Task: structure prediction
Amino acid sequence: MDAIFLQILNGLDKGGAYALIALGLTLAFGTLGVVNFAHGALFMLGAFVAVAFNRIISYQQIVLDPVNKTAWGTPVEIRTSYAETLFGDFGLFLIDYSVPISVLIAIPVMLLIGIAMERGLIRHFYNRPHADQILVTFGLAIVLEEIVKHYFGANPIPQSAPSIFSGSANVGLWLGLGENVVYPWWRLIYFGFSAIVIFMVFAFLKFTTFGMVVRAGMYDRDTVGLLGINIQKRFTIIFGLAAVVAGVAGAMYTPIFPPDYNIGMQFLVLSFVVVVVGGMGSLGGAVAAGFLLGILQSFASMNEVKQIFPGIDQIIIYLVAVIILLTMPRGLLGRKGMMED
Amino acid sequence: MSSKKLNFSRRQLLRTGAASGIVLATPTFFIKGANAQAAYCNEPSGSTVTLGFNVPQTGAYADEGADELRAYKLAVKHLNGEGDGGMLNTFKPSVLKGNGILGKKVAFVTGDTQTKSDAARASAKRMIEKDNAVMITGGSSSGVAVAVQALCQEAGVIFMAGLTHSNDTTGKDKRANGFRHFFNTYMSGAALGPVLENEYGKERVAYHLTADYNWGWSQEKSMKDFTEAIGWKTQTTVNTPVGAGDFSQYITPVLNSGADVLILNHYGKDMVNSLTQAVQFGLRDKQVNGKNFEIIVPLFSRLMAQGAGDSIKGILGSTNWNWSLQDEGSQAFVKSFGAEYGAPPSMAAHTCYVQALLYANAAEMAGTFSPEGIVKSLEGFKFDGMGNGPTEYRAEDHQCFKDVLVVRGNQNPTSQFDLLEVVEVTPRAQVEYDAEIMGGNLGPVNAKAC
Result:
């Protein structure tokens, strides 16, 4: 029972990440009709906003030790962060909370990157075949990765959650299960965070005039245009919003595993499977499929399951995708006409 | 418009074809003639000798590859008599004079393995066929090492392996033209076993998470054998996909498994991620079976350990070499490398530097670059002053035997590089084994012209 509960928690936090990326992919596809293979790179850029902010806020003053020398004969460097020197305890607080703060910073940064990407490159491919869109966005993803690798190196760069959230929560004691049911605080927070972001995106599209126009445009772009509404401008903003969703998801994920330049690609393929299973262009489908596949993947990794079906953990997502597409060709909540031309 | 019709007779066509064939074949004829004069593949004929440094310059291990390349460049500098000489001053017995190798200035070409076997073979092939490299060295993966070693054997050049830890490199996949200075998974297990017994006792239950490929299986088997030999029980072994990223679904079952030790048979990014996540899940704060829960990482790399941040503090593992060693050779190398690049060398850099010097010395000893001469010089060669104490290139499998370091993640690092503290220097005798148990066959040396 404890093991099952833990795997559900695993699936939820993993599914949260899948759902957030798939949500952004679906937003871009549903509005602009663009298959964006650079979306994983946006997740990676968000993670590196957190890394860059941490580096800036932790920037150190270097004083050379007049007495001690390194093993190669140069003076030992004594390092103190400027933030601590200038702001004292507040400086230390900024360093400790660099990840949550960087999530806030990632919002405008990723919005600008998203809009620049759409205006500078992607709009030129609206009327081109999906294969062209895939090639150009995949190329863009590689370029972005190489730029990040050039400045940050190839190795993963660890980021810490605020020290207050660094341990594990004894979830078992809360729910009357065994004391072995512990789960890292930050992963629980990540699940809550993804649920809030998903709710906010849905609320934005459902309850605002802007969202209403966008939803109308997703169903019938031409008619909305005939009403005198510049739907293209709104779609550009939606592309920026998709970049923000991917970016904040990436920034928040950094304490869970240390980001490197390739982190986006690891999620991209799975997220495309999530989008296809959820149904192309369906926001609800993307979210549902994200959590469903996250949980299934976690259960498939249990030793008891692997003893019966060896290697099932590595194929479960694709297996489920095949079964769903065979029985429901449009995915779980797919719309008629999406990519059926 | 008029169309011009080609008017060739059958005889004219045959004549033209034959003439074209002769013209096209001419360069090949001359090249073949030139190669036929060489006694062995890429025998240096001018005033320089070219070495091929095949390291990961892109991909996940690019930082490790960059450090290897730094070490090779430093070795070339020292071999050519530039700089402070580094380990040339401590290596003994050595016939190196700092005037190149056999009087020829050392030049080099580089290739990018990308940590992919096919890419590594392609870059090694290019360096052998186009750049006339007489020796290939480097790499940061066992898969790459085994693939390139086989290629060098076929081509008839020497391969001096870089960072490769699987038993197979000098076990079932060993080749007469290949040599490994780096240690292997057997030695890691043999060195760690007694230390684990001292630190954690005899009654422990171990849970293995293992990277699902050749090196991971090799490491798991060694750790299983040596921990069971000290009385530990193996609770479960679980293979994890390489590059899994999120290991949480593999770590949560550990919590309720009854195991009190987690052994992470992972390297590189997998090690960084699995270790970080295991610590996040509170494993190190747990008490199981009345004992503190412990995590072990059998193969530690300082460059990789940086990625794990504070998670490595207090974790036991093994390493081929560490820059904090105080012997004369290590200090000379660290001083030279640090002065050149502003940071201490990694264990990958160390093994590559040593391999370059060992190859050069073997050529000097043999008086030739011929693979036959090199193999003869290196087989059974005993040396010291290279940072690992007295060392021997065993003739039976071309594996170096030397002391192995057991290290622990430093609890109180004094600098960003001070990540590992040496817990024990395990003597060579304790990690030695019979070459027969690893299988494989060296076969004959390939010293044919190419």
Q: What stands out?
A: Chain A touches chain B through 51 residues (CB under 8 Å). The mean pLDDT of chain A is 89. The longest helix of chain A spans residues 2-32.
